[in-house]
TrEMBL record:
Residues 6-355 form the FAD dependent oxidoreductase domain. Keywords: FAD, Flavoprotein, Oxidoreductase. It comes from the Bacteria. Its cofactor is FAD. This is Sarcosine oxidase. InterPro entries: FAD-dep_OxRdtase (IPR006076), FAD/NAD-bd_sf (IPR036188), MTOX (IPR045170). NCBIfam families: PRK11259.1.
Length: 376
C-alpha cells in the first residue's frame, strides 16, 4: 500500500505547476510545502517575473512555446489574470554580443521580433534614456507574470482536481526502495510510487552527492521605484525589459500596482550559505549601483529605492536546470536548480516533470537539462 502515486516536494514556482499538471493525470498526487504556498521567503517573492518568447539559447524555444500555451490554460481554468501581455524589450549595444546573439536565436527559431533603432525607441518608448549606440529588440509576446497569483491558482486548480496538499510540512529526507519512495518529515512518513523534488534552494539535502556538488543556494535581490508620471510606466505603455548597455545592466517590469516600477540590477546573484539565512537588506554597494543605474536609465523614476527584498534560489554550475530522473530506472525525479530563470517556463517544466515522473510521456532534446550531465 502507498499513500499515492506521486509526491511533489516543494510547491513554489515549479512544484505548484507540477502538482497542477499531475492532478490532470491522476487524483493520487500529494504536495508538500515546508511553509505555505508563495510564502514571503520563497523564490516566488517579488510580485512579478518576466515572460519572454525570445531567449538567447534557441534550445529553450519549444519549452517557451509550450509554457505560453499552458499559462493561458491556467488562466482559463482558474479565471485568474496571470500573464500581463505587455510585450518585452531587450536593449543593448548595437553591435554587441547580447543583441547579436538574441537576433541569431530569433532567426533560428522563427520567433516574432522587431529590431528597433535608437530613434525608433526614443519615439515609442521615451521612458528609456538610451546611450548613443543602443538599440532594442521588441518581443510582442513578452509580458509580466504575477508570481503569487500564479502559484496559488495552480495549487487551487490541483486541489479542485483531487490533489492533497500538506502545508507547514518540511521534508527531511527521501529514501528509494525497490518499488517505492519513503518520504519523511520529523516522525511522520509516507510512501509513494514516485517523487518529484522541486524545493528550490532547499533541494540540496534531498539530492545525491554528485548533484549537491553542482548546486548552490544563491541570493537574488529586487528593487522598486516610484514613477514621476505613473501612466508612462503602466503595462499598456511600458513593456518588461532587459538591458545590457556597456558597463551597466538592469531588468524590470511595469507598474502593475499603478505606482511602483520594478527595476533591478541584472546578473547580480551571490552565494548563500543557507537559503533560510539569505540577507534581506541590500548592501551599501548594491544600493549605490542600483540608484546610479536608475538615474541614468530612467529619468522618469525617482532614483530612491522605495522597496527592496532578497530571495533564495538554487543555482547550478552551468546555470541550467536539473530536470529528470536521478537514475533512468529510478523513482526520484528532480525539477530544481533553475538558477533564477525558471519562472517564465514554470508551466512547461511542471508539465514535463509530471508526465515523465508518472511515466506518461518522455521528452526528447532535453539532454542539456538532464541530471546525467553531472552524474555520468
Amino acid at each position: 500500500m502507498t499513500d499515492g502515486k506521486l509526491a511533489v516536494i516543494g510547491l513554489g514556482a515549479i512544484g505548484s505547476m507540477a502538482l497542477w499538471q499531475a492532478s490532470r493525470l491522476t487524483d493520487s498526487v500529494v504536495g508538500f510545502e515546508a511553509q505555505t504556498p508563495a510564502h514571503g521567503r520563497s523564490a516566488v517573492g517579488g510580485d512579478t517575473r518576466l515572460f519572454r518568447r525570445l531567449h538567447l539559447d534557441p534550445r529553450f524555444d519549444p519549452l517557451l512555446q509550450q509554457s505560453e500555451r499552458l499559462w493561458a490554460e491556467l488562466e482559463a481554468e482558474t479565471g485568474q489574470d496571470i500573464l500581463i501581455r505587455c510585450g518585452g524589450l531587450y536593449i543593448g549595444t548595437e553591435n554587441g554580443g547580447y543583441i547579436q546573439q538574441l537576433l541569431e536565436s530569433a532567426r533560428a527559431t522563427g520567433t516574432s521580433h522587431e529590431l528597433l533603432s535608437r530613434d525608433q525607441m526614443a519615439e515609442r518608448y521615451p521612458q528609456h534614456n538610451l546611450r548613443e549606440d543602443d538599440v532594442a529588440v521588441f518581443d510582442p509576446n513578452g509580458g509580466a507574470l504575477r508570481t503569487d497569483r500564479s502559484v496559488t491558482a495552480a495549487i487551487a486548480a490541483a486541489q479542485a482536481n483531487g490533489a492533497t496538499v500538506h502545508n507547514n510540512t518540511p521534508i527531511d529526507g527521501i529514501r528509494e526502495t525497490a518499488d517505492s519512495v519513503i518520504v519523511t518529515s520529523g516522525d511522520q512518513s509516507w510512501t509513494f510510487e514516485n517523487v518529484i523534488v522541486c524545493s528550490g534552494g532547499w533541494s540540496r539535502k534531498l539530492l545525491p552527492e554528485p548533484l549537491v556538488a553542482q548546486a548552490q543556494p544563491y541570493r537574488v535581490f529586487l528593487t522598486w521605484f516610484v514613477a514621476k508620471e505613473p501612466s508612462l510606466f503602466s503595462p499598456e505603455r511600458f513593456p518588461v525589459f532587459v538591458r545590457l548597455s556597456g558597463d551597466r545592466s538592469m531588468y524590470g517590469a511595469p507598474a502593475v500596482d499603478g505606482v511602483t516600477v520594478k527595476a533591478t540590477l541584472d546578473m547580480r546573484p551571490t552565494p548563500a550559505e543557507r537559503p533560510a539565512a539569505v540577507a534581506r537588506e541590500l548592501t551599501s554597494e548594491e544600493i549605490a549601483e542600483t540608484m546610479e543605474t536608475v538615474s541614468e536609465f530612467f529619468p522618469g523614476l525617482y532614483p530612491n529605492i522605495v522597496r527592496s527584498d532578497a530571495f533564495p534560489d538554487l543555482f547550478t554550475s552551468d546555470r541550467k536546470p536539473i530536470l529528470g530522473k536521478i537514475s533512468p530506472d529510478g523513482r526520484v525525479y528532480c525539477a530544481t536548480g533553475f538558477s533564477g530563470g525558471g519562472f517564465k517556463m514554470a508551466t512547461g517544466y511542471g508539465q514535463i516533470a509530471a508526465q515523465e515522473a508518472l511515466g506518461k510521456e518522455d521528452y526528447d532534446n532535453l539532454d542539456f537539462l538532464r541530471p546525467q550531465r553531472f552524474t555520468a
